[in-house]
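Re: the request from the purification team.
They wanted to know what the chain is likely to look like in 3D before they choose a buffer screen. I agreed to run a prediction and write the result into the notebook, where they can find it.
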Amino acid sequence: MKISSANNDFSTQNHFKSPHLCGNPQENNRLRNIYIAPDSFERCHNGVNQKNYIRHCKKPPAQKLKRGQILGKNNKIFCNNTTDMFRDDIDWKQFGNFLYKQFKDCKKVNTYNYAASTGEEPYSLSILLQTRFKEDAKKFFPIYAKDLDTKLIIQDTIAQKTKRIYIPQTFSRAQKALGVEDSELKGLLMPDDHSYGATLRQNVISPIKFSCANILDDIKNIDNKNPSLVMCRNMWPYINSSEYDGYAEALYEKLAPGSVVVIGFFDYTADYSDKIFPDSLKKAGFKESNADINSQFKLVFEKN
């Protein structure tokens, strides 16, 4: 199943596919992956010769694309760092039940959270694992939280070192998502007496290891001696779809049997391309899990 984005911001990447951008298609492909020239993008699109295209692409200020990045309508790198604690495209209680069934007999599970942004998802995962697995949650730690944005990772690391991370609505969202007793949550969160927010306790923060990484290049750093939990959610529409099949195949080959890949609702968005990442996962050999964590879409894929 594919869905359409209400805010279609994908159309500009198709400009690069215009056959008259360059006389040499291979050179055009190389250049479109290296240079962005915001001031001259439309002129480049309407250009008729390779020399002018190269000149416009190299005209300052030029912004370098990292692997997999694409442009939005504003001719800037298409991305969105918005996130929440216990993002509601997942039934977190059911997700915890699935993880318990999947990994209860494992002595060690490698945990990776890509597109970690400002840290809400890895912190949510830390809380989930500790409420569901209790002392046994340590087998999932550390949680390797990674993002392409160096500035975000620096902010996350600084916040982590302060040991005082307050996030609005956290306590109420955790109550709703996990359905556990307040007394149990208070061992992980310090609620605000005047709102529904909370300060994260050190036992939530300390299992997270933040670092900067491009998911497409980070496969080499995945440990395949044990099964892995790979969270790469609500990020794939921001990545060039030409990367999907190759990455999914490489990930399947790298992961140990019993590993799980978790995506998000937004990853079924397909306005911008004829491909969606879930199809690439299935093509690579991953099987759709019967984990009932979303009523509309399959968000969990397993390597048997």
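For the purification team: The two ends are 23 Å apart (CA to CA).
Please add any questions underneath this entry.
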